[in-house]
Design goal:
mainly alpha
Length: 194
């Protein structure tokens, strides 16, 4: 029974040490016996009849710990600065790529818009152009430049072709077709006439 109790205390003691390890690493620790329950306790306060588990760190150990902590802080700061620098370089590369990409030409500055405006100006200045041709040219220019067509222009689908009866007097007379020449077996051809 006693051996079983000792074996049961070992995992608990190891668990307590693992939980208090961060505290024990930087401070002095004491092992005390609780008078009421008989349990072993670990604390940073000295107790009556307690034993020192972790000795108080020396000044040299404290200095080394401080140096290691400072180096860790400096590495963390350097890593953050490197990450910020990489992000800045990526942003600069993205901006450079964006600046080198050709910009899309707005419809108002396109070649089709320029030609449609020239056509509309030509139609408007032409003496022989009808009002419908001028309106159509202006509507085409507006649509080519990415603008809505003027309200005065009504776009209609082209009219369907009308059926016209055939006119025999306009068609040329049919040419008479000659029958194909007869086919003869070799040696049975007729003799030519004189």
């Amino acid at each position: 029974m006693i051996t079983t109790a000792k074996h049961a205390l070992v995992p608990r003691t190891l668990l307590a040490l693992a939980l208090f390890a961060p505290l024990l690493a930087s401070a002095q620790a004491y092992r005390c016996q609780d008078a009421a329950s008989g349990r072993t306790l670990y604390t940073d306060q000295p107790c009556k009849g307690g034993a020192t588990v972790v000795p108080k760190p020396t000044d040299e150990q404290l200095r080394q710990d401080a140096e290691r902590a400072q180096q860790a802080r400096e590495r963390a700061v350097q890593q953050r600065e490197d990450a910020v620098l990489r992000q800045q370089q990526q942003l600069d590369a993205d901006r450079t790529a964006e600046a080198q990409r050709p910009r899309p030409v707005p419809p108002a500055e396109s070649e089709a818009c320029r030609r449609a405006r020239e056509e509309a100006s030509f139609r408007a200045a032409s003496v022989t152009a009808s009002e419908e041709q001028i309106r159509t040219a202006r509507a085409n220019a507006a649509l080519a430049c990415g603008q809505p067509a003027p309200a005065e222009v009504v776009v209609l689908p082209p009219p369907l072709p009308r059926w016209r009866p055939p006119r025999p007097w306009n068609d040329p007379p049919p040419r008479p077709q000659r029958p194909p020449p007869p086919q003869y077996a070799p040696g049975t051809e007729p003799l030519p006439m004189r």
